């Protein structure tokens, strides 16, 4: 499989960039051609591909309407607007990845539901706000079958390959540096979902964008922040690969869970250096020599198995020590569902949180900001099959 291209963008202009990119999929002829090529659709089914492209366009247009409404509304109604924008983006992703059996008209036969249910225990913390750990979203299950839009989305969702700096030193002198996918992790998300659901705090603590924002509230993001690098040094007779990933200081439990999932080819054990630092960080260095004159491109590079993760910047990757039944979009999806249901069906509680500026309302506002910035980028990645990173 050809690794997806990596695109770096400016953080301040990222939302505009993403929506401009998504407008490419308003052109149904272009989108039809993409679907035909991606799914190898035979000529007799071209009309169905055109129908799917029309539906993708409809979902993206309506998602942008809800997104624009989110931008101009107050916190009183923001969660509802952004949740529906998210659900429509999820439908666009389903239509792009799925077959004709996942067209909107087919989905309406069996999956006419959000796919999530509320499991709320309305209690307040000692500081007075609602407890985000007791507001949960559960999968909608009938018998043993998960139903609804969320279930269909999760069935098609994937974890992205992980990115980092690639430095090439050439045999004849000189070097190049780029950002590429380094550690392969492009697999379907685990289809399991907790029986008791996922809490809002679970969603908040699995969003890389909130790494710094949650600290003042005493909340630690449950991810291991990592920097990945691959150096390829070529000579006349061999290529020396030096793969490194440095886990930065953070939540010790999150780091320990991530480290437990790191697996290195036993043949490379003697060439592996692991250094644990006093500040809680851990560095892995794996050096190997390929004693044949291969080029960098045709060397099998994926010999280190890591946890699934999320790419944020050209220097920062966040590893999942647990909860790998969702990717970043999925955590935003569930969190927005919870906030949308609280604001819509518990308006008395929601408005009091806002008026009192409780910790809950601050967490919610940060989460909505993260979703605003990340959702358009994440859905563009899926539709265009690329990795989009902030360049800072």
What does this structure look like?
The structure is a single chain. The protein has 392 residues and is an alpha+beta fold. It folds into 2 domains: 5-158 and 326-390, no CATH class; 162-209 and 219-319, no CATH class. 39% of the residues lie in helices and 22% in strands. The chain has helices at residues 14-23, 28-39, 46-72, 78-97, 104-110, 149-156, 200-204, 252-260, 328-345, 347-356, 359-384, and strands at 5-9, 116-120, 135-139, 141-142, 145-146, 162-169, 175-183, 198-199, 224-234, 239-247, 263-264, 272-276, 282-290, 304-305, 309-311, 317-319, 386-390. Strands 6, 7, 9, 10, 12, 13, 15 and 16 form an 8-stranded mixed beta sheet that branches. The radius of gyration is 22 Å and the shape is globular. The two termini are 29 Å apart. This is YaaC-like Protein.
How far from one another are the termini?
Answer: 29 Å
What does the main sheet amount to?
A: 8 strands, mixed
Number of strands: 17
Roughly what percent helix? 25-40%
Mean pLDDT: 90
Beta content: 15-25%
- Please write the string of helix (H) and strand (E) elements: EHHHHHEEEEHEEEHEEHEEEEEEHHHE
- Alpha-carbon Rg, integer: 22 Å
Q: What ranges have pLDDT less than 50 throughout 5 or more consecutive residues?
A: none
What structural category arises from helix and sheet content? alpha+beta
The geometry reads as globular
Organism: Tistlia consotensis USBA 355
InterPro entries: YaaC-like
Protein name: YaaC-like Protein
């Amino acid at each position: 499989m050809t690794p997806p291209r990596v695109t770096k963008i400016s953080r301040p202009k990222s939302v505009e960039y993403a929506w401009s990119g998504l407008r490419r999929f308003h052109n149904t002829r272009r989108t039809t051609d993409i679907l035909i090529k991606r799914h190898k659709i035979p000529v007799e089914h071209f009309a169905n591909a055109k129908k799917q492209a029309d539906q993708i366009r409809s979902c993206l247009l309506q998602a942008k309407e809800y997104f624009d409404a989110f931008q101009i509304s107050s916190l009183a109604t923001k969660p509802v607007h952004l949740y529906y924008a998210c659900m429509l983006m999820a439908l666009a992703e389903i239509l792009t990845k799925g077959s004709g059996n996942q067209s909107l008209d087919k989905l309406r036969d069996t999956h006419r539901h959000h796919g999530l249910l509320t499991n709320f225990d309305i209690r307040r913390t000692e500081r007075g706000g609602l407890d985000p750990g007791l507001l949960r979203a559960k999968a909608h299950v009938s018998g043993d079958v998960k139903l609804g839009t969320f279930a269909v989305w999760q069935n098609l969702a994937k974890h992205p390959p992980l990115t980092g700096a690639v430095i090439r030193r050439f045999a004849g002198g000189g070097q190049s540096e780029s950002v590429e996918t380094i550690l392969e992790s492009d697999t379907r998300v685990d289809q399991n979902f907790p029986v008791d659901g996922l809490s809002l705090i679970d969603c908040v603590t699995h969003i890389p964008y909130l790494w710094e924002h949650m600290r003042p509230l005493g909340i630690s993001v449950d991810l291991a922040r990592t920097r990945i690098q691959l150096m390829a040094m070529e000579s006349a007779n061999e290529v020396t690969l030096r793969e490194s990933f440095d886990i930065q200081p953070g939540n010790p439990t999150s780091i320990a869970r991530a480290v437990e999932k790191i697996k290195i080819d036993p043949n490379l054990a003697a060439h592996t250096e692991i250094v644990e630092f006093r500040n809680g960080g851990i560095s892995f260095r794996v050096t190997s020599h390929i004693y044949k004159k291969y080029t960098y491109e045709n060397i099998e590079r994926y010999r280190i198995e890591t946890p699934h993760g999320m790419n944020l910047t050209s220097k920062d990757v966040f590893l999942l020590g647990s909860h790998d039944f969702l990717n970043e979009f999925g955590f935003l999806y569930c969190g927005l569902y919870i906030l949308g249901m609280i604001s819509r069906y518990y308006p008395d509680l929601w408005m009091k949180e806002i008026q009192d500026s409780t910790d809950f309302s601050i967490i919610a506002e940060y989460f909505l900001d993260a979703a605003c910035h990340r959702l358009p980028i994440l859905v563009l990645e899926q539709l265009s099959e690329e990795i989009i990173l902030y360049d800072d």
